[in-house]
Design brief:
- Strands 2-1-5-6-7-4-3 form a 7-stranded antiparallel beta sheet, with helices on both faces.
- The radius of gyration is 15 Å and the shape is globular.
- The protein is built from 4 helices and 7 strands; from the N terminus they run H-E-E-E-E-H-E-E-H-H-E.
- The protein has one domain: Electron Transport, Fmn-binding Protein, Chain A (Pnp Oxidase, Chain A, Roll), CATH 2.30.110.
- About 30% of the residues lie in helices and about 45% in strands.
- The relative contact order is 0.22.
- Helix 3 crosses helix 4 (about 110-115).
- By secondary structure, the chain is α+β, with helices and mostly antiparallel strands.
Length: about 140
């Protein structure tokens, strides 16, 4: 796969939402979710009992889009691959902190803890969106 330009990487880092798509009982679903990038990899999170995670565990093939921009200056990427649960405790802790900083300024913020629980909360799952292929644009 071709590498992303530095301007597109910066743009993606600043975006707040990623749209993730999956199938659930043969039906296609797509929702906006929070995301972070760590070491050039994309991660999302959700509740361990959520409908989307239950469906992704059964059928891990997913697709996602991160896009935006103002008229005449659009950027984005569209990828597909597999959803894989992050089980490594060190990476989970890192993702917990990165989500906290990105969306609340700190992993200690009360709202962050309300949503994600504590760093090792079994009620939360972090998901690696492991890219197989995709494309991107800047125009």
């Amino acid at each position: 796969m071709k590498r992303l330009s530095s301007t597109l990487k910066d743009f993606i880092e600043k975006q707040e939402l990623l749209r993730v798509a999956w199938t659930d009982g043969g039906e296609a679903r797509v929702v906006p979710v929070w995301f972070v990038t760590v070491d050039r990899q994309v991660y999302i999170g959700t509740g361990s009992g959520s409908t989307k995670w239950k469906a992704m565990k059964k059928e891990p093939h997913v697709a996602w889009v991160i896009d935006g921009g103002a008229k005449g200056k659009y950027k984005g990427l569209s990828m597909h691959g597999k959803a894989e649960e992050v089980t490594d405790k060190k990476l989970r802790a890192k993702l917990y902190a990165v989500f906290g900083r990105k969306y609340f300024g700190s992993a200690d913020h009360p709202k962050h803890k309300e949503i994600w629980g504590e760093v090792d909360d079994p009620g939360s799952v972090f998901i690696h969106l492991k890219a197989a292929d995709g494309f991107w644009w800047e125009y």
